[in-house]
Amino acid sequence: MKKILFAAAVAVVTQAAVLQAAILLPSAAPVVETFGSAPPASSWSTKSLGTAAGTITSDATFDTSTAGLGLPTTALFTQAATAAGTSAATSQNGLGQWNSADLRLQTQPTGVDANWSVANLQNTSGQTMTALAVSYDYIVGLGTGQTASDDATPAGHRVYYSTNAGTTWTPVGDFGAAAPNVVGAQPATTQSFSITGLSVASGSLLYVAWGDDNGNGNATTGENFKQLDNISFTATLAPVPEPSSFALAGLALVGLVAAIRRRKA
Questions:
Q1: Separation of alpha carbons 107 and 99, rounded Å
Q2: 241: cis peptide before it, omega within 30°?
Q3: In CATH, what number is assigned to the domain containing residue 100?
Q4: Which residue has the higher pLDDT, 246 or 56?
Q5: How many domains does the chain have?
Q6: Fewest CB atoms within 10 A around its CB: which of 1, 5, 23, 50?
């Protein structure tokens, strides 16, 4: 009996920890990430692969690289309190970043093939999630001393999702654009996409990854920085049967049982 109670207590604590850590989707209302503070690794994680710029030159090579991503567990790197665009050197990092000056998620990979910033989302609605709509502010620019931007394919981020803890990653598409050859952050643009055909049970996790390849850019100052902010996640939930539907089903069952009894009599 004590073992059963202990196991139940562990399960409750573990579930509570997951609920506190992941980005929760409790209903069909939008959930918005604003990055006012550094997010924990259990809600936003990051990983890089490879060691060189210019390795990924197409969507196909990006997809091949992402196949080896697995499930990242490292927290976003906290970028020192320096606004992006003021110094190229200080904003580059092999991992996805949280910019503590701009209060945004940021990528500007260096020394790697690419990096990925992953949102860990948990369906807590009590219903099955069948689709997810995502929209966000996208800011791109060059740092001081930079004279060239990212390569063309993909110029912004390539987005993926996984419903099996990173065993497989499905591409959604390319979003965002390279920076013009102007130093500083450019005005934000709105990016959006939808992931359809899902069947994420209540309590289960869905992962959405923004990949940024390390383009050839400029040999001395690297490629442009890219930032995400005000990321909105809106779940589409499967409808719950009305109580009247249950009642009708119950009456039908009662009728079926009665008919079977009459036949036996």
A1: 9
A2: no
A3: 2.60.120.260
A4: 56
A5: 1
A6: 1
Structural domain boundaries enclosing 42: 23-240
Would 256 be classed as within a structural domain?
no
Across the chain, the runs of DSSP E, i.e. the strands, are: 23-25, 31-33, 44-49, 74-75, 77-79, 97-99, 104-107, 114-123, 129-142, 157-162, 170-175, 184-185, 189-195, 205-213, 225-237
DSSP-based three-state secondary structure for 94: coil
| Residues 120, 118: Cα–Cα separation, whole Å | 6
Q: What is the pLDDT of residues 32-71, one digit of tens each?
A: 999 999 999 999 999 999 998 888 989 999 999 999 999 9
Q: Decide if 124 is inside a domain.
A: yes
CA distance 20 to 7: 20
The pLDDT value given to residue 3: 43
Note whether residue 234 is domain-resident: yes
Instruction: Report pLDDT for 259.
Output: 58
CB–CB of 194/135 below 8 Å? no
* 32 belongs to a structural domain: yes
Choose among 205, 157, 169: nearest CA to 23: 205
Characterise 258 by phi-psi region: left (phi > 0), alpha (psi -120 to 50), beta (else).
Answer: alpha
